[in-house]
Structures are given as C-alpha cells and as structure tokens.
Sequence to fold (84 residues):
Amino acid sequence: MEQKKPKTLIGKVVSDKMDKTRVVVVERRQRHPQYGKQVLRALKVYAHDENNTSHIGDVVEVAFSRPLSKTKRWVVTKVIETRD
Fold:
C-alpha cells in the first residue's frame, strides 16, 4: 500500500516565545469572486519545533501531523531561510 505525503506549507515564523512551539503565518493570494482583485489571506498555525531551531523572521516548511496538543497540529520540517 502506498503512503501519502503529508500536507506541507511554507510560512514565516512570527513568534518563538513558547518552548518547542512556533507560530507560523502562511500567506496566500486569492482572487475575489465578485471583483476579481487579488486578496491576501493569512493562516496562523502553531507548529512543533523539537530543537528550537527556528526564530522570528525565518521562513520554514511545516507539515501536518497528529494532534500534539490542544492547538498544535503542525511540525516544523525544515528551515528554508534564516533572518539576517
């Protein structure tokens, strides 16, 4: 049986104040159904970062996983770009 790849998103870390948890904002552009203008939509997710490797401003990849706590459903898989 073939295993499915976990759903992944790329976003920016906006908070690293919690231990082993990062708040990641994933932004996407969506066309307005009536007016046709591009609208920016944002999704804020709580992601588990086991080794506290990411920090505010980093671009990270997060993958969907089993529930880790009341609000955490994502895991940081890799840091794509670090802040300068």
Summary: The mean pLDDT is 95. The chain has one domain: 8-55+62-77. Strands lie at 8-15, 21-31, 38-48, 59-64, 74-81. The radius of gyration is 14 Å.
